[in-house]
Amino acid sequence: MAGSGSSMLYSFLLFTVILSLQMMYRGKLASSELFTILGGFISSLLFLVLLIFIGNFQETNGIRTGWGAVILAEAVALIAASTFHRVCIKTW
């Protein structure tokens, strides 16, 4: 089982890769209805990975993870989803 530090590192790297690929292919993701739904799914993956990162970061600092982490991760994922199509906010 991975420790908090390595899990935090892997989730941050995965967040960076997913966000970079989402921004590179935002024209393709906005081109059709099916790709717009796929963009919403990718944004939900961003939310999940970012929530794991924030939770592990707070655990290494001895802070309990609460609703603030969920709201922050959701806000970042919603902003990322809205950069290529506004409907992606509603699909996830």
UniProtKB/TrEMBL annotation:
GO cellular component labels: membrane
Locations listed in the record: Membrane
Transmembrane helix in keyword set: yes
InterPro entries referenced in this protein's UniProt entry, alphabetically: KRTCAP2
Species, as recorded: Hibiscus trionum (Flower of an hour)
Keywords: Membrane, Transmembrane, Transmembrane helix
Superkingdom of the organism of origin: Eukaryota
Family statement drawn from the similarity comment of this UniProt entry: Belongs to the KRTCAP2 family.
Protein topology in the membrane: Multi-pass membrane protein
Transmembrane segments: 6-25, 34-54, 66-89
Lineage: Eukaryota, Viridiplantae, Streptophyta, Embryophyta, Tracheophyta
Protein's name in the database: Dolichyl-diphosphooligosaccharide--protein glycosyltransferase subunit KCP2
